[in-house]
Design brief:
Blueprint (H helix, E strand, L loop, with lengths): L1 H36 L14 H5 L31 E4 L11 E5 L10 E5 L4 E4 L4 H9 E2 L3
Antiparallel strand pairs: 1-2, 1-5, 2-3, 3-4
């Protein structure tokens, strides 16, 4: 019986890791679209909103190099994807004003549990999973926004 309980706990832990990795993949995929289009369409990004509005304005994004699935805006840790739900923070200012090392997208605090940190995408293109104490997560609190 104890072995079954240990197996169940291990399986639950693996599912949580899998959801966090899926979240990182989705956020990095969205980041790739932005990073790929940003240099040639820099001024066009100024028409896109900030924070949550950044994702809601996806129809106004400059020519993405590949299709975007709006379900990618839903963190798997939060629940099954629902079109229109936004689980990520978008840039708090226009992309052109942000530095290469600034997070431009990040999980909302709490997506991966209280104190769990989350995933961030830097303007330079790097996407990574970070703990709450990581400098990129701390910086994301000022360079990204979850408001409209």
């Amino acid at each position: 019986m104890a072995l079954i309980a240990v197996g169940a706990v291990a399986l639950a832990g693996l599912k949580q890791v899998d959801r966090r990795e899926q979240c990182l993949w989705q956020l990095s995929r969205v980041g790739m679209v932005v990073i790929a289009a940003e240099p040639r369409e820099s001024a066009a990004w100024d028409r896109v909103g900030q924070g949550r509005r950044f994702f809601l304005d996806v129809a106004d994004w400059p020519k993405p190099p590949f299709p975007i699935d709006v379900r990618w805006f839903c963190c798997p840790e939060v629940g099954a994807p629902v079109v229109g739900r936004i689980d990520y923070r978008g840039p708090a200012s226009p992309l052109r004003r942000m530095d290469r090392d600034d997070p431009i997208m990040a999980d909302r605090p709490g997506n991966h549990g209280a104190g769990g940190g989350g995933n961030v995408v830097l303007r330079g293109g790097a996407a990574r999973s970070v703990p709450e104490a990581d400098p990129a997560w701390v910086r994301a609190s000022t360079t990204t926004s979850q408001g409209d």
